Amino acid sequence: MIKTEVDSQVFVKKAPGVSMAAALAAVRVATKSYPGTSVMDQTAFKAERAKPVQQTLALVYTLLALAIVIACSASATRWRCPSSSAPANWACCARSG
Q1: pTM exceeds 0.90 for this model
Q2: Distance, C-alpha 61 to centroid of its chain
Q3: Cα end-to-end distance, the chain, whole Å
Q4: What's 84's DSSP letter?
């Protein structure tokens, strides 16, 4: 059995006085021999981590909007007077009849 340990994330702290561009370039050179790696700065990393949360929120907001549309549609349908056999105490029937 071959046991392999692989890090899924590696965080690098740049040395004082080194520019962000130079640090990113050095890390890209060091990781070039590892296919499938991505090198990101802190801003890009935060944006990448926020994507699933934003997608989940978008789904929740969409479902909420759909629920509101369905509720309003059902409410509008419920208060119509489709026939003359509707109870006389319904407000819409009292106005229309």
Answers
A1: no
A2: 9
A3: 85
A4: T
Nearest to 36 by CA among 69, 3, 2, 7: 7
For the chain of 97 residues, list the mean pLDDT of each consecutive stretch of 10: 74 92 93 89 92 96 93 70 54 44
Query: Measuring CA to CA, how many Å separate 61 from each of 54, 57, 66, 74, 83?
Result: 10, 6, 9, 20, 37
> CA–CA distance from 89 to each of 23, 28, 76 (Å)?
77, 76, 17
Backbone angles phi, psi at 8, to 5 degrees: -90, -25
What's the one-letter identity of residue 69? V
DSSP state of 74: H
**Kind plus residue range of the DSSP H or E element containing 58:** helix 42-78
Q: Which residue has the tokens 């561009």?
A: 21
Rounded Cα distance, 31 and 38, in Å: 8
